[in-house]
Amino acid sequence: MLINVPETVVPDALRGIAAAHPELTVDVDKQVVVRRDAPVAGKVALVSGGGSGHEPLHSGFVGPGMLDAACAGPVFTSPVPDQMVAAAAAVDSGEGVLFVVKNYTGDVLNFDMAAELAEDEGIRIAKVLVEDDVAVTDSTHTAGRRGTGATLFVEKIAGALADEGAPLERVEAVARRVADSCRSFGVALSPCSTPATGGPMFDLPSGELELGVGIHGEPGRERRSMMTSREIADFAVDAVLAELEPEEPVLALVNGMGGTPLLELYGFCAEVHRVLGERRIPVARTLVGNYVTSLDMAGASVTLCRADEELLRLWDAPVRTPGLRWGA
Amino acid sequence: MLINVPETVVPDALRGIAAAHPELTVDVDKQVVVRRDAPVAGKVALVSGGGSGHEPLHSGFVGPGMLDAACAGPVFTSPVPDQMVAAAAAVDSGEGVLFVVKNYTGDVLNFDMAAELAEDEGIRIAKVLVEDDVAVTDSTHTAGRRGTGATLFVEKIAGALADEGAPLERVEAVARRVADSCRSFGVALSPCSTPATGGPMFDLPSGELELGVGIHGEPGRERRSMMTSREIADFAVDAVLAELEPEEPVLALVNGMGGTPLLELYGFCAEVHRVLGERRIPVARTLVGNYVTSLDMAGASVTLCRADEELLRLWDAPVRTPGLRWGA
């Protein structure tokens, strides 16, 4: 691994973010990344965060048109309420703060506690829970569906509405609408290796894949002998469509887990589009890349988001973050 | 691997590029990716290409402000002259075409032959050779220095000048100036696996690293027991500085080889900035990510580019491609 010692992996990365992105303020000790121009007068602020190891999520999504701040926990472990309160205090302009929370027990508890503490300090807080992974319910770390790729859509689209000056209630409502409009399914072709152990985090024999894996390597629906890209796309897209039933065109995220080359990911994208075409689902926009990752895990996930005209307009709005950038 | 069969990996990926990026025209049979609005009247066109497996280089760099077309070869194998001539013919507005060529024997021969053929068809051609890797001279596939990370700087900066309407001679001159101003050094922490074999392409025992590796896994200067991120940054940056001697601030590319998580890459970026600070080299801009890759190889490279005011202005100019996008 390209690290110094396992104990400093997260602060080392935060120092690198500070070095590469002068438009961000990074509190390396507190592990909080904030837009340098925060608080932005008259704007609702968005704060997210979670365990590290999923980069660019969340710190790479801080900037105009997306998050105002992100809190980084240890690898695959929730940040603590103190970080979330500090982030909220740093970005609140008086218009309130939306917490974007992935559905893992630790994250949910800590953001709940942080919301109470922040409200005690006079900051208005709203919360949206992201729970899009259709693979399993009630898996390791989670009651209900896990929060995965939909987080990117929620942060991007709600961030765009906040940028337009919408009040907290409307930003919260659109965030919830996006969360309700997204479903995801992922596969692992190899386990990921955590800095702490230096070795594979879970056991997945070469030549097998985990259908429905979580972004921390949590077990999915079943393990099978290696399938082709075509077969995986059929399985993943149909799993998503079984719970989504789009009536509008969809936004599609073809997401790499970190260790899958872009060459393979684009090939998978072709198969995802093929299945969607066969199921008569029009695709309005497609994003391909490593956005919601699991360290060096090989594999991919598909997230579909039903997008009416408002969501599509907000998706297309300018965004300027290290990990997602267009139109500005 | 997330593929169908090894034989269709490149065309499958090209179908995915076509599906995800309607602003590009993809000839899947010919393996050429072109800006949909090409030829752009009054503009010099840029064409590059090379073996596949280095994505987003080159097809991910096609778009306004960068390349007009890219030719994709088989994995780690040069495209053929026919592709390059077809690309040049598709994008030439009459102002001429600049070929951006990485210094590998096959690429050089094929682009030379393509230049002759294109000129026979009445297309003015200029060429720039990218040869930035300081690790070794005359390695596998290459006489002289290998072409690696500098390619991104050449394509971005010359593409920006072409966008301003500069004539072919000036675009060629700035491309050469960028190529002369860039040097790189890379390390491998694991071998990459090619679709054809499904297994490691070269032997690199766990716990060892290759200092000075090429982007096809070519041997570097030496193999050592695993080093820390800090030690690798010292070695890589000093190797680059030994042949660059910047008098201006530098643009820094902290590039992942494909399989190294962004969390580790940002930690490495912090160490690269630390060394540069110790050597009193100011850094004007830093780009961190997987841009010039070697399939799923773990590792990283550092490219530094001496940037005077003109190069910095052109670097900052708008670019809109799948792999690099800002300001537009």
CATH topology of the largest domain in chain A: Rossmann fold
Mean of the pLDDT scores of chain A?
A: 96
Instruction: Please indicate the count of domains of chain A.
Output: 2
As a percent range, the share of strand residues of chain A is 15-25%
CATH class identity of the largest domain in chain A: Alpha Beta
Largest sheet of chain A: 6 strands, mixed
Radius of gyration of chain A: 19 Å
Q: Greatest interface and its residue counts?
A: A-B, 62 and 62 residues
| Low confidence ranges of chain A | none
Assembly context of the chains: homodimer
How would you spell out the order of helices and strands of chain A?
A: HEEEEHEHEHHEEEHEHEEHEE
Distance between the termini of chain A: 35 Å
Q: What is the 3D form of chain A?
A: globular
CATH-defined architecture of the largest domain in chain A: 3-Layer(aba) Sandwich
| Beta-strand segment tally of chain A | 14
What's the arrangement of strands in the largest beta sheet of chain A?
1-2-4-3-5-6
Helix content of chain A: 25-40%
The CATH homologous superfamily of the largest domain in chain A is named Dihydroxyacetone kinase, domain 1
Secondary-structure content class of chain A: alpha/beta
